[in-house]
Amino acid sequence: MWSVSTKEKKELSQEAAQIDWKDFYRRVLALVIPMALQNLINVGVTAADVFMLGKLGETALSGASLAGQVQFIMTLVFFGLTSGATVLTAQYWGKGDRKTIEKILGMAMKFSLITAAIFTAAAFLIPETLMHIYTSEPDVIAEGVKYLRIVGWSYLFMAFTQVYLNIMRSIEKVVIATVVYSVSLGVNVCINAVLIFGLFGFPKMGIIGAAIGTLAARVAELLIVVWYASVKNKIIHIRLRYLLRSDKILLKDFMVYALPVVLNEMMWGLGSSANTAVIGHLGSAAVAANSVAQVARQLATVVAFGICNATAVYLGKTIGEKKYGLAKIYAKKFIRLSLITGGLGAAVILLSTPVINHTMSLTVQAQSYLSFMFFVMSYFTVAQALNTTLVVGIFRSGGDTRFGLALDVSTMWGCSILLGAAAAFLFNAPVQIVYMLLMSDEVIKVPLTLKRFFSYKWLKDVTRDF
């Protein structure tokens, strides 16, 4: 439908020549910088736990890291709900329909609170069972159980704040999230330092102190968001009637576009957890090294993910305004930006390898694993930056939410996880080989996502006239 003919190429070239690119980059930076800061701050919370618990040893670090997989799966559901909602809200924002955006916010928040209640109950009732999924080491399980039973309280707070802030992003209100997560990081780091190490006369609480720090940070987030939503935000309001009752037509649209995204994020998240579970059965040295490598990757991709999120908002609004030619031109520009930021992230990972190995209190074996994992993460980061911008930013902005689901199921579950698990459990391959196979999915995706992009099947208007 949207394949580009020679005539259309000429029209697009003429349209591109008329674009004020300085204004484009100014608008993009206004979205990317706060979003990149938010990503950096969110990673900073995780990095603070990893760094401080790493000082206590591999057992505490591994316990918190593996227990964090429960929250990771839950936040992927939140991200799926809000990403699916963003498909609609960004386009309705371009259309100028605020009432419909409030209805979508109510639906997304209702589903997220139900999800959080389920995960909270699991964290309190079956924490040992959850930890057994990721490791068989009793000491690591015991530490993870301590962490889960405290952090579980924070899940309901996160359901409210994360969904609200992500919907605000889709209507170009991005600064509030930066403020919220900045305060959250400060609270988390301060309480972590005091309670993990027993500073200023407080007892030395180890992993329990880290859990309390995380919980306090989530409470701070909630308080700021409630204040902002009730006092400062005069554009989009949280309305109780939309939380309790959903518009049937809009609910159908929400399910059509959000459900594939939720399933996509769940399959990707479960795939990442499967990777962690495979590595978890290779020993605490591999788990500790992977914990650090994942944080390094997250730090290296904060700007790339900022580009991805800005792409979804900017293109969604453009498509909602029915400017399809501009959407194609902007999309290509965002692809170039993703490759640049991904390459810079790879360079950061490679340059930081000796510094991280010198700083962390890891065994010689764990340091050896870490050096190889950082090498794998360097090229993984470039591929992930490109694929995420295409799938999460470009395709979803145009309502194409099913392709990502099919892509992740086939490349992760049908290839990388299968090969990695076979290498680990059937052939007893070295940790390095297992890790390289488990992280091969992003490289496999590249030609598939590029082919989908140039078909232009992703480009469509999903709004209705209510």
What are the salient characteristics of this protein?
globular, single chain, mainly alpha, 18 helices, 466 residues
Describe the model.
The protein has 466 residues and is mainly alpha-helical. It has one domain. The chain has 18 helices and no strands. The chain has helices spanning 6-17, 21-54, 58-95, 98-125, 127-134, 138-151, 154-170, 175-197, 207-232, 240-244, 248-280, 284-300, 302-320, 324-359, 364-397, 402-425, 431-438, 441-455. The two termini are 26 Å apart.
Give me the secondary-structure topology.
Layout: H1 6-17, H2 21-54, H3 58-95, H4 98-125, H5 127-134, H6 138-151, H7 154-170, H8 175-197, H9 207-232, H10 240-244, H11 248-280, H12 284-300, H13 302-320, H14 324-359, H15 364-397, H16 402-425, H17 431-438, H18 441-455
Helix pairs in contact: 1-14, 2-3, 2-8, 2-12, 2-13, 3-4, 3-6, 3-7, 3-11, 3-12, 3-13, 4-7, 5-6, 6-9, 7-9, 8-9, 11-16, 12-14, 12-15, 13-14, 13-15, 14-15, 15-17, 15-18, 16-17, 16-18
Total individual domains: 1
What order do the helices and strands follow? HHHHHHHHHHHHHHHHHH
Task: Sketch the major β-sheet.
Answer: none
Identify low-pLDDT runs.
none
Distance between the termini: 26 Å
Q: How much of the sequence is in beta strands?
A: under 5%
- Helix fraction, binned, reads over 70%
Radius of gyration: 22 Å
Strand pairing plus helix content: what structural class?
mainly alpha
| Tertiary shape | globular
Separate helix tally: 18
Q: Mean of residue pLDDT?
A: 87
Q: How many DSSP E strands? A: 0
Q: Brief description of this entry?
A:
This protein is mainly α and 466 residues long.
